[in-house]
Amino acid sequence: MYLPKHFKGEWTEHAVPLILSDPFASLISTDDTGLPFVTHLPLLLQDKSVGSDSTTPVLLGHVARGNPHWRLLQARPTSVVTFLGAHAYLSPQVYPDLARVPTWNYLAVHCTVEAVLIDEPEAKDALLKKLIGDHEPAYAAQWRSLDADFQRKMLAGIVGFELRVTSFECKLKLNQHRPEAHDATLRMYASGSSHQRALAEWMVRLKASQG
């Protein structure tokens, strides 16, 4: 994506908390015609560190067996995953002069990934338990209590995968290059919608990290 240096975020400090707070992603592969094929789905981030001396981050997920996306991952494992965090309109009213235009602020992470399919029943069961543990731990007991035949049927209906993150881009577009509008933008966002308030929190966070 287009990523000016003043909007660039780091993995541990910015991308990881964005992925954890907004785990609903777009998984993008190419189909046999060369066009993008997109699946919207939640992904669980494992092994959250990145770098030559650390574990490769992994995103865990699954799709319905009827979704052809898993076959695309099998044929062409390299794909892109995008996460979109809070986003909101910004009025030119925040500037001290009138020769300005509106814009849209947002938080986003793009990951290039290598897919490894998970289709063995025991491995898929382990994958589901990780996802359940993240989203609704109390459901684990209910899943374990279900009839074995029903569990096998449900597991047969999905294909799981690990998406190993090989590179990333993190964009924090919060008008950092317009310091003259920082205070007014913060006030506007802090009293606005949930997305605007989330952007305000990130503005405060970035300001604090810059000293």
Commentary on this structure:
By secondary structure, the chain is of the alpha+beta class. Helix content is 35%, strand content 33%. The protein is built from seven helices and seven strands; from the N terminus they run H-E-E-E-E-H-E-E-H-H-H-E-H-H. The protein has helices spanning 11-21, 69-75, 121-135, 139-145, 148-156, 182-190, 194-209, and strands at residues 24-30, 36-42, 44-46, 58-64, 78-90, 103-118, 158-173. It has a seven-stranded antiparallel sheet. Strand 1 (24-30) and strand 2 form a beta hairpin. Helix 6 (182-190) runs antiparallel to helix 7. The longest helix has 16 residues, at 194-209. It is elongated. The mean pLDDT is 93.
Main sheet: which strands, in order across?
A: 2-1-5-6-7-4-3
**Low-confidence regions:** none
Main structural class: alpha+beta
Q: How would you sum up the global shape? A: elongated
Spell out the blueprint of helices and strands:
Layout: H1 11-21, E1 24-30, E2 36-42, E3 44-46, E4 58-64, H2 69-75, E5 78-90, E6 103-118, H3 121-135, H4 139-145, H5 148-156, E7 158-173, H6 182-190, H7 194-209
Antiparallel strand pairs: 1-2, 1-5, 3-4, 4-7, 5-6, 6-7
